[in-house]
Backbone:
């Protein structure tokens, strides 16, 4: 507690920086906000302390700061894991957000629309969970009070509920694809689709994942990128899918490429398709192996079969008695 009083809280400092009054255009930096949610999900930041700091930020008199804090809380709910969802769905936090509906500022209409939209999305997200059911109760109470909730374009049913079942992050001292050791300079990253641990080279692609409520491009590994983009079929147990890697050593050719930057898959789609077409052409021009084998068997059988030569029959001389 004394060290925190002297040096401050890194969580509060991070939230204050992301929701500062002088943020350009008063728009939240999505990339930085996702990194903050990642720290909560990986338990580097305490979910309870993060929720408390966000709730305190909602009490800031500047409406721009309040809007930034709400948007940051929304990203944490959808990307920070079940612990931050549980903390933000508590009565204290939801009452603090719903209390902003009575705000009388220059951006009161915009602030109200954001609050109503967030409560509506969270109510759909937490539906069916008894521990987070308070949000649904607040939404019903606001409806009875005459508040009209806006129509949202993103799914508020099953697609958003899937967020709760997003894979938990795995931890590993080495990249789970190329097996390079993580160091101070070679940082570990997590794929948002499979939850596995990769180096930067093996997880340099970004794409939205709507089934986990990732509507902005997020970091994914190469295997998940190919499947999410439908470049390769989604096969259960393949590399980059949940349950595919359990510590097996990677092939030696992958270890040899560990220090070579992996090219971005999005830039090599044309080359990949050309390589597939070339492989298909080579397969078509290759002789049929089954026919070749059958013909070889027949030839060898014919060569091994013994040949029987029939000697010509000579006519015996006929003798007569005198």
Residues:
């Amino acid at each position: 507690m004394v060290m925190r009083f002297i040096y401050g809280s890194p969580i509060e400092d991070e939230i204050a920086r992301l929701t500062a009054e002088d943020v350009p255009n008063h728009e939240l930096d999505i990339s930085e906000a996702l990194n903050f949610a990642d720290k909560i999900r990986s338990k580097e930041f305490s979910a309870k302390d993060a929720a408390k700091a966000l709730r305190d930020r909602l009490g800031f008199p500047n409406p721009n700061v309040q809007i930034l804090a709400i948007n940051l809380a929304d990203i944490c709910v959808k990307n920070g894991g079940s612990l931050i969802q549980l903390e933000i769905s508590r009565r204290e936090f939801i009452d603090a957000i719903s209390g902003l509906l009575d705000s009388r500022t220059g951006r009161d209409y915009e602030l109200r629309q954001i609050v109503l939209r967030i409560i509506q999305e969270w109510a759909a997200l937490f539906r069916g969970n008894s521990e987070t059911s308070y949000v649904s109760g607040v939404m019903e109470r606001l409806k009875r009070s005459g508040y009209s909730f806006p129509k949202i374009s993103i799914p508020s049913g099953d697609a958003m509920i899937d967020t709760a079942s997003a894979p938990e992050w795995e931890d590993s001292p080495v990249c789970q694809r190329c097996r390079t050791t993580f160091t101070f300079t070679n940082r570990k990253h997590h794929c948002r689709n499979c939850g596995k641990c990769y180096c930067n080279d093996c997880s340099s692609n970004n794409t939205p994942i709507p089934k986990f409520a990732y509507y902005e491009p997020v970091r994914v590994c190469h295997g998940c990128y190919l499947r999410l983009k439908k470049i390769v079929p989604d096969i259960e147990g393949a590399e980059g899918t949940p349950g595919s890697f359990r510590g097996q050593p990677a092939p030696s050719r992958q270890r040899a490429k560990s220090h070579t930057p992996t090219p971005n898959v999005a830039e090599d789609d044309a080359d990949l398709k050309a390589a597939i077409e070339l492989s298909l052409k080579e397969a078509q021009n290759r002789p049929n192996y089954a026919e070749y084998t059958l013909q070889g068997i027949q030839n060898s059988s014919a060569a091994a079969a013994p040949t029987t030569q029939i000697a010509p029959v000579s006519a015996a001389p006929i003798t007569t008695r005198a």
